Amino acid sequence: MKPTKKILIISYYWPPAGGPGVQRWLKFVKYLPDFNIEPHVYIPENPTYPLIDEKLLSEVSDKAIIIKQPIFEPYGLASVFSKNKTKKISSGIIPNQKKQSFIEKVMLWIRGNLFIPDARVFWVKPSVKFLKQYLQEHQIDTIITTGPPHSLHLIGLQLKKELNITWMADFRDPWTTIGYHKQLKLSSWAAKKHKDLEKEVMNSYDQLLVTSPTTKTEFEAITSKPIEVITNGYDVEKVNKKPLDEKFTLAHIGSFLSARNPRILWKALKELTKENPEFKKQFQLKLIGAVSAEVLQAIKEFKLEKYVNHLGYLPHDEAIIEQRSSQILLLIEID
């Protein structure tokens, strides 16, 4: 057997964090030891996660070496003014501009202009200082940063400058072209700063990983360095057959953002409930995860609220059960 290779993975999201951001590297870390790779995972000691899923703790590989360091996050201070609004903005649920309160507008301006690239930027310097020593002591020469939050790529960038290491940057979502970026009320200076940091990261890594061909095409306009697509997958052992719902369920699972509000679909469903008595009797709209106020308002506007079963955020294993039992799954992209 060839010698075990050590790698360091720098991630903000890790169990008990819930939501989609945690799944990708939780699963990669689970299977890396099968390829004779020893994963060291660097995570914050006291993070402010918008979603919690305690059950995911049981899925952390016992072969992973977990390293924690304290983090300062201004979201904790912002929650003094409005915990609910802070939580929604932190998870990417941003209200329509016309319906934003004064506090929401201020919070968005601060988030976009003072915390660049994001509110976890205060973790960069202490992390670089700690990890320089850790990498040398443990003889690790390969690191992987995964974002969002893209501040973590700045940790990789600085470590790459100071040490003789191989750096892989994993982008689960884009940076300046992500859906909510334009809603951050950026000044021209802040917008340029985001672009400059993005370009520096894009031209400094050794290998870039993205989740889709679309993101790869976007980034190819910024860098000529290598880019590989590794799509998000699924854990075969977790997917079991389930009986379908008795109702005709149309299910959306995940964050239902304002920019994904399918008004044409709501209109069509309203007409179907008026024209087809059997459809009206059997139809159910199943919503799992955070849903923006604009989406809920549109559903009410089209008189569909009585068909809604809004389950809110569910632990991952329960969300999988609901996914398998739904008649139709609704997947919506930002226009």
The CATH C-level name of the largest domain is Alpha Beta
User: Count of DSSP E strands?
Assistant: 11
Q: Supply Rg.
A: 21 Å
Query: How far apart, in Å, are the first and last alpha carbons?
Result: 50 Å
- What proportion of the residues form beta strands (DSSP E)? 15-25%
- Fourth CATH level, the homologous superfamily of the largest domain: Glycogen Phosphorylase B
Largest sheet: 7 strands, parallel
Instruction: From the 3D structure, determine the CATH topology of the largest domain.
Output: Rossmann fold
- Helicity level: 25-40%
Task: Explain the overall architecture.
With 335 residues, the protein is of the alpha/beta class. The chain is built from 12 helices and 11 strands. The protein folds into 2 domains: 5-74 and 115-229, Glycogen Phosphorylase B (Rossmann fold); 237-329, 3-Layer(aba) Sandwich (Rossmann fold). It has helices spanning 23-31, 75-78, 83-90, 102-113, 124-137, 151-162, 188-202, 213-220, 263-275, 277-282, 293-301, 316-325, and strands spanning 5-10, 37-44, 65-69, 142-147, 166-171, 207-210, 227-229, 248-253, 283-288, 308-312, 328-329. The strands form 2 sheets. Strands 3-2-1-4-5-6-7 form a 7-stranded parallel sheet, with helices on one face. Strand 9, helix 11 (293-301) and strand 10 (308-312) form a beta-alpha-beta unit. Helix 5 (124-137) packs across helix 6. The radius of gyration is 21 Å and the shape is globular. It starts with a strand and ends in a 6-residue tail after the last strand. 32% of the residues are buried.
